[in-house]
Each structure stands twice: as structure tokens, then as C-alpha cells.
Amino acid sequence: GDSVTQMEGPVTLSEEAFLTINCTYTATGYPSLFWYVQYPGEGLQLLLKATKADDKGSNKGFEATYRKETTSFHLEKGSVQVSDSAVYFCALAYNNAGNMLTFGGGTRLMVKP
Amino acid sequence: EAQVTQNPRYLITVTGKKLTVTCSQNMNHEYMSWYRQDPGLGLRQIYYSMNVEVTDKGDVPEGYKVSRKEKRNFPLILESPSPNQTSLYFCASRKGTTSYEQYFGPGTRLTVT
């Protein structure tokens, strides 16, 4: 079956540092890929998405590129802020399937001032 | 405001005492789903529904029931809760096959003693 693997956290960075959170996937078909963010005490919010190979998703300074050759969807941000502290989830889904999302285990990011 | 609501937000109960967690969305979405979140495991899908009276099992359905009698509501039922069902539960909705974005509720933290 399909699966998503993320780097284990927590990831601790200083403000304005460069962020990379690794995500790789195993899929039987051609899924869309997503990053969701969960702020403390809240539900998940969609951060960005990519629907096919070589697509780049971007939002709020975060970026991720759908790499089919390496089955990866790494999340990057050039300069993190304290307000970016949250748990980040990589996920995949097929647009015509009711079984909606397969998630990775989540990576906690802590940004220090 | 477009949203997914869940009740209760926090629940402590005892083994074997039936409980229901409600979920409601006001966006007229077709798809709804329940996930549980456990440390290191990310979110795992329990059940999903593609429309009224159409439900199917996700990855971890054992010990849970759902129903979809109205489009906006998708309650999660634990007939005989056990301690291994202690978890954080999220309801989510999605417009349908033409839309990737899922909207998550705020979560219900359940403790079974």
C-alpha cells in the first residue's frame, strides 16, 4: 500500500534560519502531494499542494517540489519565524478516491527567537 | 464562516461506556472523514463517507461506527470504548472529486480509562 515517511523531529531552528523537512513516499499510482500544518491546539490546515510531477507548491514562503524520480516532496523555507512553530504533515491522496489522505508521522518544528 | 465543528472537544470516559462524537460541516461538502492522531503515527483514517448513506472503512476501523444520514453530519460512535482508543480525533470534509483541499475540525481529545 501507499505510505509517507517524514524526518523525525523535533527540528529546532533559530529565527531566520533555512528550513528543510524531508518527505518521501511510496505510491502505487500517481497521487497528489500535500503539506499540512497543525498549530498548537488546532486542527490541520492545508499549507501547499502539488498535483503532478515537477509541480512546485508554494504558500507563505514555504515551497515543495513534486519529484517523481526520487519520490520526494521536501518542504523548504528560506527564513523561518517564531510563528512557524508547529507540526508539519506530509500527505498523499488520489483525487478520485474516497480514501482521502495518507499521512506521514508529522515533524514538529520549534523556532527560537 | 465555513467550518467543521466537533463536539465535545474533550472527553474522559470509562471502558465500555458508549459514546458519540459529533461532526458537522456547513460547506455542503460531499466527502467527510474521521481520523485519529497518535504520536509518531501521524493521522490514520478511521472511516470516510462519499455522500449520504455511503460510508466505507479506512485504515483503522475496528471498534468504531459511523453514519451519514444527513449531508452535513457525520458522527463517530464508539459502542464499547477501550483504553487503546485514547487518542486525538479529527473530522474532515472535502467538496468532492474536483477539489483537493480538506477542511479539518478542531479535534476531540478522548481519554478512556
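qc> The two ends of chain B are 36 Å apart (CA to CA).
qc> done
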